[in-house]
Amino acid sequence: MIEVNLLGSAEQRRTSAALAPSRLPKLPASAGDPTTAALGGLGLLLLLWMGYSFWSLGSQTAELQTQLDQELADSTRLAATMSRTELLRARQDTIQKRIEVIRGVDERRYVWPHLMDEISRALPAFTWLTKVAGSDVASADGAAPGFNLEGNAASTQSLTQFMKNLEMSPFIRGVTLVTTAQQEAEGHTFQKFTLEAQYETPDSSVVRTVPVVSAP
Question: Quick one: average pLDDT of 70-84?
Fold first, then answer.
């Protein structure tokens, strides 16, 4: 019968017991070093700070993008408002010009009736007119229109009196003799003349008003 000694001899067991600790894994000598732990903690904090920085930067970028979009929208609305304002201002200027034209026409609607009345009053005896027309000569501001008179006078004295009468009118000024020539017709001699003058707005005190509807 064969016997196998599985336990070994006492000397072998002692040898195994002496060698057993050497077979265990050794920990690094620096595992308990404070410097290494501090560096590890610092690295962890650095990673956390970098992560927070990236997150904060992303948040700020999103916020800035939102503000930029809002400002672009506000700029678009402002541009549209300014465009409408300019359009309304242009329309207002056009309307104002039309009002001024209408006002000017309204102010001059009685010019020629006054002129015709004053011219007829100023005509002396043996003097007659052949033409009354507006002229290009006007006042510097264009408010006082000019007019021309063409006619015949029996004598130089009649023409001179006619010019004086025109100057005395509160509606007429600047009477000027443009041309004069002696003419003969049917055995009569007369002076053919051309006068130039301007309408003048008189003082309100010399203008007589007549009610449109008489009182009952």
Answer: 85
Q: Give me the number of domains the chain comprises.
A: 2
Strands (DSSP E) found in 91-187 = 127-135, 146-153, 172-185
What is this structure's pTM? 0.47
Domain boundary among the residues 66, 86, 109 is at 109
Per 3-state DSSP, the chain is made up of helix, strand and coil in percentages (nearest 5) of 55, 20, 25
Under 8 Å CB-to-CB from 200, ≥6 apart: which residues?
144, 170, 171, 172, 173
CATH number, domain at 122? Answer: 3.30.70.2830
At 79, is the pLDDT very low, low, confident or very high (cuts 50, 70, 90)?
confident
Distance CA 216, CA 213 (A): 9
The residue behind tokens 């077979």 is 23
My answer on whether 86 and 124 are in the same domain is no
Full domain range(s) for residue 137: 111-203
